[in-house]
């Protein structure tokens, strides 16, 4: 396995400065944001997509520092009922898909998106319950009329480009747990034996839903959908969670009152989680990058990121597995 970073946390740095910092910390890889919610802080992806010179320049900068490009990040809502947003995020997604192989990666990370509750809605509608019955009707519309048709087309396009889409299962979007991810992938991928719509497994979003990320890795591994992995932690406040549960829409800055907050790796869960987690990833053939994502409200970017690097360096399994010499 390799250690990398989702580079949106370096927004404000120049590209060379961010790469130097990663090399200084001994990272193996970097995930570059190229649109959607993470923005495009380092270069214009449209220009890069149309310029072989710029592509060679980007690849050269990475190679000079012994960094590989693990993925392009373009998290967005391409099926939003807000037409301008959907158009912008879809265009960014297409650009990322075209650019990825030109920069040496076959992984594009994004969200599934979330439509409105009907074709008349003006805002996304994330359904979290089965009753009253109109919520079931919303889900039928979202999946049958919007999500499945959209992602069927994207799967065809990705097959032509030779890339994979790694959905980040995230509350607020229609893919938010292993079941929704697997169902959407199975409904949309023409090649069932080699699907190209799969998972960016981020344990932080599963913790607060009551999902065991180790078991999630097992299920996604069995489905052949472990494409990528983010490394981010979550701390649940047992006092607040016992009172208000974990479906919490308060500001991430409201640290005293929230039921949970994102933490840097090791500050929400320790070795009892992270070591079985990376072991389960390896069990199902994932020896790729653990891409650190820093969103810790208690720490500065520098401290949180560097602590994550230090902690995960002792957790990841770096060498190929050996022969079982003892039997």
Structural write-up:
The protein is of the alpha/beta class and 327 residues long. It has one domain (2-313): TIM Barrel (Alpha-Beta Barrel). Helix content is 42%, strand content 15%. The protein is built from 11 helices and 10 strands. The chain has helices spanning 15-24, 45-49, 52-64, 83-103, 134-161, 178-188, 203-207, 213-222, 238-244, 271-283, 301-313; strands at 2-6, 29-33, 68-73, 107-110, 164-168, 197-201, 226-231, 233-236, 260-263, 289-292. The strands form 2 sheets. The chain has an 8-stranded parallel barrel, surrounded by 6 helices. It has a two-stranded antiparallel sheet with strand order 8-9. Strand 5 (164-168), helix 6 (178-188) and strand 6 form a beta-alpha-beta unit. Helix 5 (134-161) crosses helix 6 (178-188) and helix 8 (213-222) packs parallel to helix 10. The longest helix has 28 residues, at 134-161. The two termini are 26 Å apart. The mean pLDDT is 98.
Low-confidence runs: none
Number of helices: 11
Q: How many angstroms separate the termini?
A: 26 Å
Tell me, what is the CATH class?
Answer: Alpha Beta
Enumerate the strands of the largest sheet in spatial order, edge to edge or round the barrel.
1-2-3-4-5-6-7-10
Topology, number of strands: 10
| Average residue pLDDT | 98
- Oligomer designation: single chain
In CATH terms, what is the architecture?
Alpha-Beta Barrel
Under CATH, the homologous superfamily reads Divalent-metal-dependent TIM barrel enzymes
Beta-strand content bin = 5-15%
Radius of gyration: 20 Å
Based on Cα principal axes, name the global outline: globular
């Amino acid at each position: 396995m390799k250690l990398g970073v989702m580079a949106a946390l370096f927004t404000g740095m120049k590209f060379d400065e961010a790469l130097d910092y990663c090399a200084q910390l001994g990272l193996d890889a970097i995930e570059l944001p190229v649109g959607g919610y993470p923005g495009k802080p380092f270069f214009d992806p449209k220009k890069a997509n149309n310029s072989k010179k710029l592509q060679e320049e980007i690849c050269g900068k990475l190679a000079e520092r012994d960094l590989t490009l693990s993925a392009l990040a373009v998290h967005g809502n391409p099926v939003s009922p807000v037409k301008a947003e959907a158009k912008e995020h879809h265009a960014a997604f297409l650009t990322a898909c075209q650019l990825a192989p030109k920069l040496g990666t076959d992984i594009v990370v994004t969200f599934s998106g979330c439509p409105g509750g009907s074709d008349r809605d003006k805002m996304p509608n994330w359904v979290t319950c089965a009753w009253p019955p109109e919520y079931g009707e919303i889900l039928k519309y979202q999946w049958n009329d919007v999500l499945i048709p959209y992602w069927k087309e994207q799967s065809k396009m990705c097959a032509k480009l030779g890339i994979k889409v790694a959905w980040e299962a995230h509350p607020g979007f229609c893919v938010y747990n292993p079941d929704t991810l697997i169902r959407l992938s199975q409904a949309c991928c023409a090649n069932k034996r080699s699907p190209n719509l799969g998972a960016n497994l981020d344990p932080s979003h599963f913790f607060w839903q009551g999902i065991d990320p180790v078991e999630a890795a097992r299920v996604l591994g069995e489905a052949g959908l472990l494409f990528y992995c983010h490394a981010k932690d979550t701390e649940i406040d047992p006092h607040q969670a016992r009172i208000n549960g974990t479906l919490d829409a308060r500001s991430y800055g409201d640290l005293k009152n929230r039921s949970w907050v994102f933490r840097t790796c090791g500050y929400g869960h320790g070795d009892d989680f992270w070591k079985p987690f990376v072991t389960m990833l390896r069990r199902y053939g994932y020896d790729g990058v653990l891409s650190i994502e820093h969103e810790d409200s208690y720490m500065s970017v520098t401290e949180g990121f560097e602590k994550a690097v230090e902690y995960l360096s002792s957790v990841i399994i770096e060498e190929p597995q050996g022969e079982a010499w003892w039997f």
